[in-house]
Amino acid sequence: MKIGKIIFGAMLIASAATVSMAAEPEAIFKRCVVCHGKSAEKVPPGGVIVSATLSADEIKKSLKLYKSDKEHGGKMKVSMQTQVKNLSDEDIDAVADYIFKNFHIAK
Ligand code: HEC
Fold it and tell me: Which of 91, 30, 36, 103 lies closest to 64, judged by CA?
C-alpha cells in the first residue's frame, strides 16, 4: 500500500510542523504592551489608531505591510518596522489573533 505510506508520512510531517511552528502569542504581545497598553487599548506614542479596534485581519495585514513595505504607515512607522522585523508570518498571525480574541473593542 504505497499510497497509504505516503499519506501516513505526510501526516507525520504535518504534525511535526505544527509543533515547531507554535508561536507563543502571549510572549510576543508582551513586547507590544509598552506602547500599545496591556490590552492594546492605547493609541501608541505618535500613532493614531487603537489596535484593539481592528479586526484580526486588519492587524495581520498592517503588520505584514510594516514588514514588507518601507513606505507603509504614518510618521512613526519606523517604530513598527523594528517590532515586526524579527516576527515570522506565523508569529504575526498568532499575535493578531491573540489581540483580537482577548482585547477587541467594537468600534
Ligand atoms: C516602541 C513602541 C511600539 C511597540 C513596542 C509596538 N508598537 Fe505597534 N505601533 C507603534 C506606533 C508609534 C504605531 C503607529 C506607527 C505609524 O505611524 O505608522 C504603531 C502601529 C501599530 C499597528 C497599526 C495600527 C495601529 O494600531 O496604529 C499595529 C497593528 C501595531 N502597531 C501592532 C503592534 C504589535 C502587535 C506589537 C508587538 C509585536 C507592537 N505594535 C509593538 C508603536 C509601537
Answer: 91
